[in-house]
C-alpha cells in the first residue's frame, strides 16, 4: 500500500487538483506569499457562494465531490489552501494565527469581489471559519462546522510543547504513523480505499527533501491550535449556524501529552457537538451516528443531505 506513495514537494507542484488552481499574491509579515485557491463556477448560477475551508492534515482537493454537487445546484464554490498548506506558500518565518488566516481568506473574497458567502469549515478549517465569522460577520451568510477541532480548550488537558519539540515530532512522521493516527482517531480502525488519497498527500511530503519546510509550518500551526482556542467565543456567533458532527470522532490535539486519566475525556464529539450547539444561539445540530472525523469522505450522502438542507 505504501509503495504507491510518491514524493511530493512543498507546494504540491506535480499533484493535480480537481479544478483549475489560481494564486493570490499576498504581502504578509514581510513575506511575499502565494495563496492557492480554486474558484468553481456553476453552469446556472443561483447567486450564492460557498467557501470550503480544509483541515490541518488536508488541502482543498478533498472537497472535489462537495464542490461538484454544490456547483450543480447553482452555487459558486471557493476553495482556498491556507498559507502553510496544500499548494500555498510555506513561509519559514511567519506568525500563524487564526486571525491572520481569516484575513488571508478574506483577501481572496476581496480579490474576487464576493461580498457575502456561506462558510463551511472542517476540522482545523472549523476554527478558521469560526474566527472568520467573528471577525467579518457581515461577510458570512451562514456558517457550517463539520467535525471542527477546537470545540474544547486543549490547554486545559495537554501539557505545552515548544515549537521546536513539535517540529522534531513532525520530522518523525511517516506514511505508517499518519495512517495509524487516522485509523485511531478518524476511522475506528477500519480502512477503506477512499481514505487512501488523503493519506498519500501528507505521506508524500515526508518522502521529499522539502519535508522540513512543511514540518516546520505544521509545528507552527499545531502551536496555533493549542494556544488560540475559539470555544470561549461561540456565544458571540450571530449568523445561522449548522454543526455536522460524526459522533465516533475522538480527535483531540495533544492527547499524547495529557495525563492518562484525562485522555478519555478529550475529543468526545457526541458531547462536544451538543455543548457547542447550546453555546451558538439558534444553531442546528445534525449528529451522524458511528461516523468519524471526515463525514464528507466517510458517509458523503449523509453529509450532503445535512449540508444541502441547511443552505438550499
TrEMBL record:
GO annotations of cellular component type: membrane
Native source species: Chryseobacterium hagamense
Keywords: Hydrolase
Any GO molecular function: hydrolase activity
Domain AB hydrolase-1, chain residue ranges per copy: 49-251
Keyword Protease on entry: no
Protein name from the UniProt record: Alpha/beta hydrolase
